Amino acid sequence: MNLESPKVSVDQSAQYLFDQLSDVKNFEKLMPDTIAKFEVTGDDSFIFGLKGMPEIKLKMKEKSAPNKLLLGAASDKLPFSLEAKIDPVADNKSDVQLFFQGEFNAMMAMMVKGPISKFIETLAGNMGKL
What we know:
Elements: E1 2-4, E2 8-10, H1 14-22, H2 27-30, E3 35-42, E4 45-50, E5 56-64, E6 68-73, E7 80-90, E8 93-102, H3 106-125
Antiparallel strand pairs: 1-8, 2-8, 3-4, 4-5, 5-6, 6-7, 7-8
Organism: Flavobacterium caeni
Protein name: Carbon monoxide dehydrogenase subunit G
């Protein structure tokens, strides 16, 4: 299952956004209002839970300054990744887009597609808060 957020423009440089997203504790600022839990579990990982959804642990898997960050599930039970692509537009303006890729069976994919789509749209929409 592949999902992508709308591309959002942020009035920050690509390097600034990359630095902010490299620090996993800043993901709390991007979370939707329905967040029930957010806990940093290490320099490169965090757990979050949304109301009505199971808790998910994400771990930083790859960084390529200043254009790409890749987070992945810390558990192999639900293999998925969340990628942030940052495109510089001007010195203090960047476009950011999030890409979700997960390997789910058809039933699970049907159940999670809507909530995950809304979730990554919210994360992208909140980039201006960084």
